[in-house]
Amino acid sequence: MATISISSQLEAYYSTIRQNRWHWLLYINCRILLAFAFIVSGLVKIFGERFASGLSELHPMGAYLEALHHTGYYYTFIGYAQVLTGIFLLIPQTVLVGALIYFPIIVNICILSFAVRFEGSFVSSPLMVLANLYILVWHYDKLKYILPFNSYSKAVSIPIPNKYKTRFPVVFFIGVISIMSFTVWLAHFGYQVMPRNSLKDCNSQFTNIENDLIGQEFCQCIHISGKPLRECLKILET
Predict the structure, then answer these.
(1) How many helices (H) and strands (E) does the chain have?
(2) Considering only CA atoms, which of 186, 177, 194, 188 is closest in space to residue 126?
(3) What is each CA distance from 14 to 21, 94, 128, 141, 231, in whole angstroms?
(4) Is 84 helix (H, G, I), strand (E, B) or coil?
(5) pTM of the prediction?
(6) What is the pLDDT of residues 119-178, one digit of tens each?
(7) Cβ 80 vs Cβ 86: under 8 Å
């Protein structure tokens, strides 16, 4: 009975979201921004250029992208897959398929960004994951049939309302802004050191602090020696 009650409450709340104009505008913006990001990065791969070409091959992410660039038609395939996924997001009839394809790809990019501490997508990738999740939640009326819930309505999808409600969901958007702010804060303060995108930027982390020479050795390990991040981090532990 508790499960049914919770499920009913979720469906009631979901129904109010789908009828709110502000939520709809956020949904549309998420679709457009995510589609734009994938189409642009996909075209770079289709044209055979290395993504983030300005990043040194000695950087952990640069080494990964360089290796990926040399995988031949696999690299091109990723580009076409990204462009197709972006187009799916823009078409109302295929947006859910696009979001489902998009999600594992962007989660992989997010984890990779954190693993190598890449500034280029350290903030954007987790925000893209959240935007993708919002699109999936918007289509909960379809996805619920594959979720482990015991109770659900018979309607396959909720119809578009004749007129959206205009009440601004203050609490929800405060939550959105808080999550975005936390993500940006984590990008700047989540790790004590970052490889950064250049030797100069990396060294700037250790200016006027104790053991700055050790920090510079870490940066040289990344940007001059080209050693793995894990190995270079050991320098700071000594």
Answers:
(1) 12, 0
(2) 186
(3) 13, 21, 21, 9, 48
(4) helix
(5) 0.83
(6) 888 889 999 999 999 999 999 888 877 766 555 555 556 777 888 888 899 989 999 999
(7) no
